[in-house]
Each structure stands twice: as C-alpha cells, then as structure tokens.
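Hi, does anyone understand the following?
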Amino acid sequence: MDVPASHSASSTESILNFLAAEGACDSMALERARAVAREARISPAQALVQLGLVSERVLAESWSRVLNLPLAGPERYPDSPLLPERLRSRFLRAARCLPVALETSPDGATTLSLAMANPQDEFAACAIGLACGARINREVATPIELEAALTRLYPEEERDNSPQDADITVEDDTERLKDMASEAPVIRLVNQIIGRAVESMASDIHVEPFEDRVRIRYRYDGDLQDAETQPARLAPAIISRLKILAKLDIAERRLPQDGRIRIAVRGQEVVFRIATAPSLHGEIVVMRILDRSSVTFDFAAQGHDEQVITRLRTALAAPNGILLVTGPTGSGKTTTLYTALLSLNAEETKIITVEDPIEYQLPGINQIQVKPQIGLDFATLLRSIVRLDPNIIMVGEIRDLETAEIAARAALTGHLVLSTLHTNSAAAAITRLRDMGMEDYLIAAVLRGILAQRLVRRLCEDCKTPMETPAEFRTRYNIKADTIFRPHGCPACRNTGYRGRQAIAEFLTPDAEIERLLFAKADQSAIERAAIQAEMKTMLITGMEAVARGDTTVEEILRAVRADD
C-alpha cells in the first residue's frame, strides 16, 4: 500500500496530531520538535525521537496506525538478503529500509515488501521499485530492529565503514564527527544512557574513554557504579553527540568546556550540566543531572535535625546579617540555600542570587550567572546588585576577602546575605573568614549563624535489617536505642542496602562568649567548645541520632564526619 507524495505534509501533521491525541507528547513537546526540525532540516517526527520525547517504537506503531500500514516485527526480517544483485547494502543503509518479502503473482507481476524506518520516503520506494522491477508494498520498521537486521544480513558493510588512513583536515574531521554524532544508532545510544540515568535516580553520568573501551558510570547517593561499556570506536561519536546537545565546540578537543543540556526524558524536561576535559584516550565527559522533580526543598525532608531547623529559621528571620552554609563539595549546600530562599520568597521581598553555576531555576527569584571570562565575578556582581534594591542576597560562594567584605557591607546596610564556604565544621568558618583577612569586629557584627553539613546515605526501607546495638556504640557514641539497622541489599536499592541521602548538620549561633573568643583570637577548637556548651549539637551527635532512628549506619556517619578519639 503506497502513500502519494502529495500527502506527505498532511501525513506529518497527522502523525503529530495522533501522538498528541494518544498522550505520547504534549503541545510544548511538539513546538520544540518543530523548532529543532526547522533548524536541523529533519521531520518533526524525527526531532521528537532525537529529543527523547517519543520512543522509536511508539513512533513506528503510530505511523502504522496513521498510514494504515503493517508494522514489521523482528520475525519479519529474512534469513538472507533479498535481491542482493540489484540492491547494494550501502544504499539500503542510507535509505533506512530493507526488503522483507518477495512474491510473484500468477500473471508474473512481482511485489516486494519493504520495511522502512521512514514510510514516507517516496524516493527510496520508487528507486527500489525501479531497480527491482517490482511493485512496492510498504511496512513500517522500528529503526533499532531494522539496523540489527541490516548488520546481520550485511556484516561486510561494517568492515567497509572502518576509517581509512588518509590526510584529513580539521574541517573534514569536524564534519565526520558531526555525521557520526547525527547517526540514528548514536542518537539512540546517547538517549538510552541519559534515560537510564534519570530513571534510576542517578546524580551524575561519567563517560570515560580508554584504549579498549568507553566506560559509562552513574553516581548513586555519592558513590560511582559501572553502568555499561561501549566499544572504544564509539567514543568520538558519543562524546560529539553530547557536545552537540550542549552546544559546545566539537572541534575543540584540547581544552575543557562547560555547558548545559535541556532535554525531555520520558516526556519530562530535565537539565544537565556538562563538563569535558581532554585525557590520554579522548575527552572525559561528566554530566550532572539537575532534575528538580527529584529534589525536595524542605528542611525536614532533607533530614535536618529539629534543633538545626529551629536555629536556621531564627537566623533567616533576621532583617540583616550573614548566614553561612559550609561543607565540602557535594554536601548539599546549594540545596539547603535554595530551600532557605524559597521559604523566604514572598511578594513583598526581592531576592537576587549570584551563582556559579545556577543549579535550578527558582520561581520568583532573580538569578544571575557568574561569567569570569568577561570579568563578571562574584565581587563585581555583588557590588552591582546592592544597587538593585534587594532584601535578600544569595552569593554562591565567598572565595576571597573582597567578596567577604562586600557581603559584610551589604549586611551592615540592611540586607540579609546567604552564602557558602568550604570548611569542615561550623567553627572552622569563623577562622576561615579571619584567615582571609576579614576583621574580627566585622565578623562579629554581621554573622547570624553557620550551618555545617554533610550528606550520608539512607538505609533502604525495603531491606534494612535490625541488629542489637553493640556495646561499643552505646558507650562511645551514646546510642541509647536497643536496636539499630544495617544494610542488606535488594533490587530496589541496586543491592547496595542504601537508597537516597539525607543531611546531618550542626548549627552555630554566635553569642557573647563566641564574640569574646573571636576578639581574643581563639582557635577553632575553643570556639567549637563554646558552641557545644551553648547546646549546639555537633554533626557527630545528629548523625548518631539518625542511626538510632534507623535512618542510616554508624559506618556512614564516620565516613562523613571524623570522630574525635
């Protein structure tokens, strides 16, 4: 059954309308696909697949129903090539079609059934019909099944496509990479790598080329796990595809690059932050998954202790001053700050953030991206935004004395400033500011509180196993519970025994004694002892309380927080 060429445009609209009516995609997805199709000069249906908005299988089934054509399943493909003397494998691959059946009627007329990834390709159908002297009956092919059949039936084509030694210019090399990255198998592979990571709740995707393979790893709850291995020859295509999605320069492979990818995964838009760097066997790519739907902007849900939440909310209620969140990279500082900002966001309040990078878009909050390459750094932006009449300012990180002093001046002039530092404890933040060169009187005047935190893995609720609390844990860590839990492992937690992460934290509220110690040039230990005497729970204490509740394990707490002997 053929579809006239004049019906091609109407059929394209029909398939889009059909997909929308079936709930396979929404109007926003269709608009994105149309925009990409115009730019890339492909059909909107192809764009839907490349963007990951619709699967190849769903599209093939939809074409079958819209065009009233049979769907060619895996069993439909022949055991040996049909008419190999008339049809070259190179042409069939380019046309993305394959003869699946040949019939001759009593009157001598020949009919060739043709499985087509693009059933609207009039040129391919006509060309094959003329070459074979046959009438063409079209069938709709799912691309992955079609390509598997082509590889099985024409294995010599794989060898013919291997790179040949030649003088290749940079321009030729770039075009070759673009072509490789735009091939359907590569697009599908990259979409699968991304889709599996999002579906399995990974936080990062690592693509690492080696001499003999490409290693794909996902990070779950802070730990990397092997996901899959691909042939080394696919490394340039996979990496180029990711760079194209992030609008990076695919010809530049000598320098690190950073970018962002916004893509729909299973119909849901997800943002990825991508970073590349050259290595011995090609470019390393790391993608941070910024899926807002997987993040909870609630202090209690994040695992924060009641005392920490109470002290934090008191500090946030201050009309001015500086609130610091400290901890190493990856300890959840940005999520805590975003939660604080969203709790403060109101119609009568203006909030401006200066970030590097912007992790998530926050509704109703003015967010500014730092761009050091054009001189737009934290200090420069902080000086400027004070003149924009904000009530609350969030600075991604205080990295130097200049930024610290500008933040302090903003706090002294009636602004509440939130920021982060890289220190191991709350008390260490005070000595860190002093080491930067900030005056003691300025620290005492503006500091409203310091939250230090870590992230620890949560025990899987489906498989955690109770155990009697060891005597050592009772005496050394003051765990009063008779029973604690240990990890076991099940499919729900990928057999790790842990699923998700939670915060453990300590909150230091400056008081008169800490101010006295500050002016006396006391060290970090003295400041911490004073905070504990003022009833601050340390991270170790809040962590062990989480162990007693059955949330995590002693091993997790000790891995995150070094216990004093």
User: Anything to note?
Assistant: The first strand starts at residue 71 and ends at 72.
